[in-house]
Design brief:
- The chain is mostly helical.
- The protein is built from six helices and no strands.
- It starts with 11 loop residues before the first helix and ends in an 8-residue tail after the last helix.
């Protein structure tokens, strides 16, 4: 029988608050999608008509996947903080920077040099990813991630 004892424990309140933090950052990036959907909802003749629309379904899917992704990312960052024994803000900033470099930097470089996307679009996406990695690791270090701080 498989057990999950090899996964580092992370304080549930840290996962909950980190999910809210990370989800807020994600929603700030997705605001244009939700803003457009909100204006379409106001223009719809009835609430029932809007809730049956394709825009409502896509907005709900984006919101739900963002929430689940935020929770998983928060657990992952919290588990890394615990597994590496990071206690200081400086260490958390380094850890968050390493996570950013490993997960987001290749796509940022690709967007700039290969896809030739506008710099403002790339900068907003990169800033959001920095908040989701470095900011989240600093926030979780501030809140605390260890289930038993005396271990």
């Amino acid at each position: 029988m498989a057990t999950l004892h090899y996964l580092p424990p992370v304080k549930p309140s840290a996962i909950a608050l980190g999910t809210i933090f990370n989800h807020t950052v994600s929603l700030a990036i997705l605001t244009p999608v939700f803003g457009d959907t909100y204006h379409r909802a106001q223009a719809a003749n009835s609430k029932e008509e809007f809730f049956k629309s394709k825009e409502a379904a896509s907005a709900a899917a984006a919101w739900g996947s963002s929430l689940v992704g935020s929770a998983l990312q928060t657990y992952g960052v919290g588990a890394l903080i615990n597994a590496t024994g990071t206690l200081s803000y400086k260490g958390a900033a380094y850890l968050g920077s390493l996570i950013f470099m490993a997960s987001s930097a290749p796509s940022v470089i690709s967007q700039v040099f290969t896809e030739r996307r506008p710099m403002d679009t790339v900068a907003v996406g990169a800033l959001g990813r920095i908040f989701e990695t470095v900011g989240l690791s600093l926030f979780l270090t501030w809140w605390g991630t260890r289930t038993n701080p005396f271990d």
